[in-house]
Amino acid sequence: MSDYTDTDKKQDMQVLHSMGYAQELERRMSQFSNFAVSFSIICILSGGINSLAQATAGAGGAAIGIGWPVGCFISLVFAVAMAQISSAYPTAGGLYHWGSILGNRFTGWLTAWFNLLGLVTVLGAINVGTYYFFMGSFGATYFGLEDTTLTRIVFLSIITGLQALVNHMGIGLTAKLTDFSGYLIFVTSILLAIVCLLAADSFEIGRLFTFSNYSGDAGGGVWPETSGTWVFLLGLLLPIYTITGYDASAHTSEETLKAAHSVPRAMISSVLWSALFGYIMLCSFVLMIPNMDEAAGQGWNVFFWAMDAQVNPAIKDLLYLAIFISQWLCGLATVTSVSRMIFAFSRDGGLPASKALSKVSPAYRTPVAAIWTGSILSVLFVWGSSLVSIGETPVYTIVVSCTVIFLFFSFAIPITLGLFAWGTSKWDKMGPFDLGQGVFKLFAVLSIIAMILIFVLGIQPPNDWALYITVGFLVLTGIIWFGFEKRRFRGPPIGDEVARRQAEIAAAERAVGET
After folding, report:
1. Which of 37, 484, 494, 505 could serve as 22's disulfide partner, Cβ 3.0–4.6 Å?
2. Chain Cα centroid distance, residue 199
3. Which pTM does this prediction carry?
4. Nearest Cα to 440, choosing from 417, 423, 419?
5. Is residue 433 a contact partner of residue 84, using CB atoms and an 8 Å limit?
6. How far apart are CA 52 and CA 255, in angstroms?
C-alpha cells in the first residue's frame, strides 16, 4: 500500500521479533482487509438466516426488534476487551499468545484448545449451513438432490476443498476475495431488506416489539415448551451465534499492515457494522412475514417459506445466489482463521506434528499443512458426528451447540487474565489502541458476566447435552495437561528465550524470502 512505509514495516517486524517470532507470513492485508475477514466470518447472511428460527420460533418479533441489539451488545463487550489486548500483542493465533503471557503456560494451552476446537467445529457448521441453504434454494428445486449423508459430505468436501485451495495460494488472493465478501454482504443485506419491505403487505412496526411465546409445537419444535422469559433469552443465541468469529482479525495480525493500530479497530468495527446491517435486514424480514403465527409454525424453514410466499421468483433466486456466494466466502475466511491458529500453536510445539503444521510455504507464504489439516478435520468432524446419535439427537447437533461455548470461553480466558494482569509485570505496556484502565476493566467484567449467560443459555434443552460435552472436554483437558503436556509444552518465548531466538528468526525469514 502506498502509505505503508519502510518505517512502518520495520516497526511491525520489530514488534513481532520482540515476541520471539519471525515474519514468515506475508503482510498484505490493509485495515479494511483485516476488518473484512472478521466481517465475512460473522456473515449476517449466514448465521442471521440459517439460525433465524431461534428468534421467530421463540419470542417472535421482539426476539429481533429487541433481542438482536441485546445479543449484539453481548458480543461487542468481548470484542472491545479483546481489541485492547490485540493492540499490545499483535500475533497470529493471538488468543493463545494472550492467554500465555497474561497468565501462564497452562492458561495459554487451554485457550488454544478451546479456540481450536471451536474454530474447527464452527467451520464444519458454517459449511453445513451453506449446504442446507443450497438445498433449500437450488439443490432440490433445480438439481433434484436429496438430503443424504453422502450428498452432504460430498458437498462439504468440494466447497471446503475450494476454500482450502484459495487459502493455500496466498493471503493476497484470500484478502481480495474477503474484501469482495465484505462489499457483497453490505450490498446483499441492503437489497434483501429493500425487497422484503417492498414485498410486505403492510408495515406493522409494533410487531418488532411484541413478545410472543412460540415454544413447543407452536414454533415447530425449535424450542421445547418453556416460559416467555426463557424463550426470549434463548432467542439471544441468534445474534450471539451470528456475531462471533471476530477473533479472525487477531489471527491474521502477522499479515496485517500496522497491525497494532489496524487489528483492534477492525475487530470492533466488524461487530458494529454486522450488528447494524443485520438489524436492518432482519427487521425488514419480520415486517414482510404475512402472519407471525404461521411463520413460527414453520420452524427452521421460516426463511424459505416467507420468501416463497412474498417475493418474485426471479428476484428471489438472484438474492439466493448472492447469499450462497457470501456463505461460501464466510467459510473461506474461517479456513484462514483456523489455519493461523493451528500455525501459531504449532510454532510453539503445541500440537502433534507441530514441525510440519508450522511450516510456511516459501512460494505462497502460507501455512499450507495447517490450512489443509484444519479443513480436513472440519469435514471429518461433520461426517463422523453425523453417523452417531445420543437418543434421537445426532452427535453433530450436540457438538455444534458447544461450539460457541468453546469459542467464547477462549475469548473470556485472556480477557479475565488481563483484568488482573493490567499494570503488573505481565502487562505493563499498552499498545497504541488504549481504552484506559477503567474502560478495559469495565468491559472485562461485562465479558465475564456475558460468558456466564452464554454458558447457561447454551446448555438449555434441546442442547442440554452440551453441559456434559463441555464438562467432559474439561476433564479430558485436565488429564492431558497433567499427564503429558505440563512437562513437555514450553509455551511461547518469554524473557531470555526471545533473545536466544534471534538467530532462528533471521534464518526463518531468509528461508521464505523476507527482506
Report:
1. 505
2. 32
3. 0.94
4. 419
5. yes
6. 34
